[in-house]
Amino acid sequence: MTTASINTVTRFFLVIAALPLVMLAILALLGARDGLDVLMTGSGSRPLLGAAWVATWLAAVIVSPIAFGAALVSVALQRWRDRRHLAPKA
Amino acid sequence: MNKLLQAALSLVLSSSIVLPTLHLALRPASERYLRTANGPPLMAQELAASQLAAWEEGQRDVARQVNPEWDLGHHTFFALGLTNLAIDATPDVRARLQTDVDAVIAEVRARPQQHFHLAYFKGSFEDGRGRSLFLDGEILLMLAARLAVWPDPARHAELETLAKGIVDQMAAAPALMGESYPNECWMFDNALALAALAVTKHVLGHPVDGADALTQRWLANASRLTDPHTGLLVASTTWQGATLDGPEGSSAFAVAHFLELVDPPMARDQYERAKQQLVVRPLGFAYAHEWPDAAQWGEDPLPARANSPDVDSGPVIPFVHAGAGASGMAVLGAAAFHDDALVAELVTSLELTAFPERKNDALRFRATNGLGDAVLLYAMAQGPLWRLVQTGKATS
């Protein structure tokens, strides 16, 4: 695996980790949080935005930490592999 | 190691660390959701602060267009939550809460029956009195609770008249199940009415005429109202006692709580069964199903309205089948039966999915409505009133 491939995997996970957070920020600007009554009533004042907020929030809380953790693990895995390659052969 | 393998391994390792520990990041400190020697959980006080402010602004936030029953439930759980908080409160706070509880009761009593019912309330009741046990039971429980905490002998006759009406309605029914809609009798309402009669007995110092006999007959008849597949009381019946709705999470936990004042061993048994049948506890979180697993019915037909979300169940989240109403009521059940571990897991789920909004020591959940917040207030505040009725003492 090359240095470029490390970056690809790590970058992929970092993008996945950041994506829900960015979307959450955009939805917050659009005022989606005010449509949250969609959950209890099935309708709500802004049902689509409210539903989008719920889905994105759950992604941000669950997916983002996993993706961020995976990015860290992928870096660790690559370092471990690099050390094995660079170690002098007996 | 190719990229795909590296990505998969990274994902598995990260998930195996993050998923089992996610709840630790979301779980509040225990004094926020468990009663301490100093009084009710902080959440109870924060929820009360938010709801008192909303009440004073005239907000009722219960989406009456979706379900006017939520409006009554909101009033009742709000009043009962405040009543329980008042028992531990300082004299000045108690005085303020008395004013609020009286205002809540007065507002309910000023409305006609239809106001708190769905459109199909119109029609002929099997019982000639044509009264809704849903409405009358909740009024009786609120008034009895109010008089238990702020005694006023001048209102005893009023309380006794209300209670006698309920005794007569339930005693006249073939299955001892009073109607809330024409030929529709709800276990939630009947169990609540029995609890209200127990609080009334405490207030008056003697049972209402016929109430003790009714309670004994009802308990003796309870096996007829029990689903044989789960051992849980069914959620609704016809006036004759035929099952309409089988066991439901939005009913079972509250029913167990109400029965604590009527038959504590039966109440505990119902709670444990509801927990076993309905609660799911993944990775430090918890939620409740609205209906038990249909597989238990085997070849037998399911109750007529099983697995059909309605205004009582609230939304049911697909795939995991988490019921909003059932999960909210599970908080009440777990708190009432001192199941601290389950309360912690349910509260953690609230933090994840119900969007708590904290401002100036006031708390509301953005993903619920007025009823949901009032149920959570009552779940967190309950205890002192039941202890007062059971032991004559407010503190444990």
Protein model, in words:
The complex is a heterodimer of chains A (90) and B (396). Chain A is mostly helical and 90 residues long. Chain A is 80% helix and 0% strand. The radius of gyration of chain A is 20 Å and the shape is rod-shaped. Chain B is mainly α. Chain B is 54% helix and 6% strand. Chain B has helices at residues 3-26, 42-56, 69-88, 91-109, 133-149, 156-172, 187-204, 211-221, 249-259, 264-278, 324-336, 340-353, 370-381, 384-391, and strands spanning 185-186, 236-237, 243-245, 279-280, 287-288, 316-317, 322-323, 356-359, 362-365. In chain B, a hairpin with a 4-residue loop joins strand 6 and strand 7. The longest helix of chain B is centred in the first third of the chain and has 24 residues, at 3-26.
Shape assignment of chain A: rod-shaped
E-strand count of chain B? 9
The protein's oligomeric status is heterodimer
Mean pLDDT of chain B: 94
Beta-strand proportion of chain A: under 5%
- Count all strands of chain A and give the number: 0
- How would you spell out the order of helices and strands of chain A? HHH
**Using CB atoms under 8 Å apart, which protein chain pair has the greatest interface?**
A-B, 32 and 31 residues
Main beta sheet strand tally, sense and closure of chain A: none
